[in-house]
Every structure is written in structure tokens, then in C-alpha cells.
User: Fold this.
Amino acid sequence: MTERVPVDVAVGILIDAGQRFLLTSRPGGKVYAGHWEFPGGKVEPGESIEQALRRELHEELGIALGAVQPWKVTLMDYPHARVRLHFCKVFAWEGSLEMREGQQMAWQTLPVQVAPVLPGTVPVLGWLAAERGFAGATH
Assistant:
């Protein structure tokens, strides 16, 4: 069996003044449609993680990001692809959130109230729980 080359994906953990984080649903027609995730997308050739995140969140949500804090990187094996997820925290942005791909959005705290949660999102909820001293189920 040949090893699959990972696809790099930039992911934004948008955190508001109340410490809520933004989850969006995957649009219809995409793999895992309807599952909830942190917004982001594939890194294009020649782009840095930050450049990709800025482009993706402008395309998907209509916002311009302030400072981007690289946070954690993990590999996920999905049936359709191996994905290297680069998670970045974002505490400031300009513009109003627009769901430009027909997705839904929800500001969440732990435990999240939306379902189903994308498998690649589950570890992130655990990391947030650890940082925040949250005990119990995260989703």
C-alpha cells in the first residue's frame, strides 16, 4: 500500500471577546457535508499557512483577519484523504461574518451544542478543554 501524501489545510479558531469559538457546517456537495468544523481550507502552492487562512476565511466568511497565532498541527486520516491540519487562533477580524458557501455558523462554548462534529475537530475541542480547565464531554 502506498503512503498517501498529506494535504495541508489552514484552520482558523476564531475566538470572540466572550471566549466563544466559531464552528461552521460543511456545505452540501462536500465530503462530510453537514458536519461541524472550524473554518479553513487547503493551502495552495506557494502560500504560507497564514496566507492560506487569510484567503480561505475571506472567501468563505467575508472577513479580513487581524493577527494569526499558529497553535497546533495534527494529521488526520480520512477515507478520502490524509490531511495535515494547521490550527491557528484568531482573536481579531474585520467585517461581518457572511456564510458565502451556504454553510451554517454557530458560536460555541464547551461542550459544543452542534452535531455531528467532524472527526478532525474532536481533538481541537480536547485541546481547548485542557487550556480552559474544562472537564467532561466536549461534544
